């Protein structure tokens, strides 16, 4: 549902209005529907006017900033040393991903999830981003940037490991995770959206039945047909 809405209404799904307590204009349900389909509220206010009254809005800032900078003719090195990246590791998205990483390691330690999927995702994403950075450093972020930005750690440990939709065999989990990691990098690098985990996980989910059928362990004495 989230991906369907994101594809259908990309601007509205990535432009969050401020809370009611700090909002300059009060909105109702009719205003929200009108803004989605016409770009204006019932009183004629635009999205830009409705977002007045706050100092900042949260979004996939690092990935979005990199994607925007590249479309403006800047190199990745220029983008990653200015603006929101000026403070290095002190900016929030790095610490958020570190927090998710620690939470994921706790899940592994408690045996809530298996190691196969997150390890495959992070390993392939690291490998793909390293190769991409070595080949075209001007148009791709560093490997650490890809690992600690966007929904990388959240997706690797808390989304892709969903026991219902993920692969169920040990080898299948490795293939499933590797596919997600590769898709994340490819969509970030060549796609139109800054982050890619929702799309990568859904596309990999489509391949789960095939992956499980090809990697299902044989019963002792049986032959693979």
From TrEMBL:
Its keywords, alphabetically, are: Electron transport, Flavoprotein, FMN, Membrane, Phosphoprotein, Translocase, Transmembrane, Transmembrane helix, Transport
Q: Which GO terms describe its cellular component?
A: plasma membrane
Is Membrane one of the keywords UniProt gives this record?
yes
Which ranges does the record mark as transmembrane? Answer: 89-108, 115-135, 141-161, 173-190, 196-215
Q: Which GO terms describe its biological process?
A: electron transport chain; transmembrane transport
> Is Translocase included in the keywords of this UniProt record?
yes
Q: Which InterPro entries does the entry mention?
A: NqrB/RnfD, RnfD_bac
Database matches in PANTHER family: ELECTRON TRANSPORT COMPLEX PROTEIN RNFD, ION-TRANSLOCATING OXIDOREDUCTASE COMPLEX SUBUNIT D
**NCBIfam families for the chain:** rnfD (TIGR01946)
Q: What is this protein called?
A: Electron transport complex subunit RsxD
Output the lineage of the source organism.
Bacteria, Pseudomonadati, Pseudomonadota, Gammaproteobacteria, Aeromonadales
């Amino acid at each position: 549902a989230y991906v369907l809405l994101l594809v259908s209404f990309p601007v509205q799904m990535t432009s969050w209005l401020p809370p009611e307590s700090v909002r300059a204009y009060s909105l109702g349900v009719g205003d929200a529907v009108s803004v989605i389909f016409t770009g204006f509220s019932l009183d004629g206010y635009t999205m830009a006017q409705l977002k007045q009254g706050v100092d900042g809005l949260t979004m996939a800032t690092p990935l979005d900033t990199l994607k925007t900078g590249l479309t403006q003719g800047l190199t990745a090195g220029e983008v990653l040393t200015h603006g929101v990246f000026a403070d290095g590791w002190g900016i929030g998205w790095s610490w958020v991903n570190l927090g998710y990483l620690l939470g994921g390691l706790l899940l592994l330690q408690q045996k809530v999830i298996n190691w196969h999927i997150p390890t495959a995702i992070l390993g392939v994403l690291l490998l793909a981003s390293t190769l991409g950075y070595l080949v075209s450093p001007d148009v791709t972020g560093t490997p650490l940037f890809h690992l600690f930005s966007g929904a990388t750690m959240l997706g690797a440990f808390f989304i892709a490991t969903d026991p219902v939709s993920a692969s169920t065999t040990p080898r299948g989990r490795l293939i499933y995770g590797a596919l997600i990691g590769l898709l994340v990098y490819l969509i970030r690098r060549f796609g139109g959206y800054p982050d890619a985990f929702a799309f990568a996980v859904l596309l990999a989910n489509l391949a789960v039945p095939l992956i499980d059928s090809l990697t299902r362990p044989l019963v002792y004495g049986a032959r693979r047909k």
